[in-house]
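During the no-cost extension, the postdoctoral fellow (Dr. R.K.) reprocessed legacy sequence entries with the updated structure-token encoder. One reprocessed record is reproduced below for audit purposes.
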Amino acid sequence: MKVRYISSLSILSALAFAACADLDKEFESGVYTSDTKTNIVENMPSRSTAELSGLYNIMAGPNALGYGTPDDGGYPLVCAFFDYNGPDAFAPSVGYNWLSTSSEWADRHDNYRNPRIRWDLFWKQMKAANDIINSIDPETTNKASQQLLGQALCVRAFDYLNLAPYYQYSPAEAPDGLCVPIVDGTTALLGYARNTTAEVYKFIMEDLDKAIELLEGYNRPSQVFANQAVAYGLRARANLYQENWAAAANDATMAIEVSQSLKGDGCDGMPYSKEEVSSPCTSFYKLDHNWIWGLKFTETMVSGSYASWPSWIGSFSANAYAAGSQVYDQINTLLWSIIPETDIRKGWWVDENLHSDHLTDVVWSAAGITLTGDQIATENVEDVKMPYLPYTNVKFGFDPAGDLSKNGGDWPYMRIEEMILIQAEAYAKAGDEAKGKQILADFVKEYRNAEYTQYCADFSDEVWMQRRIELWGEGFSMSDIMRLRKPMVRFNDRIETNVPDDFKFNLSHDNPIMLAIIPQGEMTSNNLMVQNPIGDEPKHGDGSNLLDGVTD
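Re-encoded structure tokens follow.
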């Protein structure tokens, strides 16, 4: 019997006695058992590689959850949901913007599709990870089995790190607060209750401790697969959320060092250079040397679908909602205005005149039309692309040899730059601020802005500012706000913001609406589940007195 994954944790549990897991695929004339799976892993490595590819492809899209809608585009679009909740990224408030729910914070309605997508996607992948984990003897000495188990543990920890920060405040702030359920693949007939934040992070850390041990020396085929550097990087994130500063700094350092020591997997452990990030044709669209871990998102997988990151987050597609309907992904002028002109990242967005130096030598060609330089931003190609809006991003690039109508492009889960920023923050908060400052200055001066000087009076805010610039659009906006106990600030009196009126509000850190909502389907089918408090939906002008320490 074969069961398709559904979102309700309780229904999954109830079916577990009678159903074979998704990993139980047809094997010759029947279904193979857990013992058979272990033998296959040990004797047929290609079979385990195929299982892993399926595990990772769950996060791709389009139609990752079967909704068939333009916002069902897998992990990259969930990153957009996270960032559109935040202060720094948005698209226009128009009918064609399928992602506006997050900008409005209407994703706190439990019967909307948006909260289901950001909930279901990670549980779907976690089920596949649990199937692998529970099919392998945890004490196995077979290297292939250890590597398969280690990767599945990394994936499960990754899923939890994309759930836990949003459904409860950080473990340092609310260790006893109800977070998300711990689901390890064992049966729970009555459903799954929410565990405390402390319990969830303990579970995450145990997975990652074991993964680091199992993945020692593993040389992966490509950055699609998790290796020991990925496990260290995920543990660095987990330690950052827990405010284990020295441990976070050490893990980030190890992620970098392991990346530099392992050869042949595509990652060399070095950041993007200034030259690489100065053109959309040389960065942010392919598995690259500075990507510790990433999602392969090929043209064949996408097939021109609107449910893809090039259709929404990118600005170069020739078959997209963003380009075709002028719902481009933009940066808030509050942040853009404080990026120095000498910082190469200023050109990741066009200015108020639709100009970016990053477009100077770029050639865009589609539908029989070729555009160069600023023409890419200013020209209209009927039924294909509309002119950019001020402050439209050109950070996320495109393959100049690819077909722009196909919407292919890879997506980063983890970059070396994130690890460097974790080092800088964690060393400083662990008591060695001089070392943290040196790490940050060395990175920014060498790779982004040779004339860098500290902008914020508080160094913690300085690192946060650098994270907001460097990791813009990659899904870290709200998890940083939650762990740093910051307000979400989109406007103030310093400069006129370009945020649409419908999204023009600020939120205090203790506003109940900060916690994400568990979808209605889960609440209905899981008898042990309890809902987060539902705050009042914000409106234009709310929180006008709030400041965040960075964009003041």
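Strands lie at 26-27, 30-31, 89-90, 291-295, 330-331, 363-366, 369-372, 411-415. Residues 1-8, 10-34 have pLDDT under 50 and may be disordered. The remaining legacy entries will be reprocessed before the final report is submitted.
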